[in-house]
Amino acid sequence: MAKYIALAISFFSIYLATRLADYWMISFAVIGYFIVVFAFILDASSKRKPTKKPVYMTLYDDDLLAQHPHNAD
Question: Where are the transmembrane segments (predicted)?
Answer without folding.
Answer: 23-42
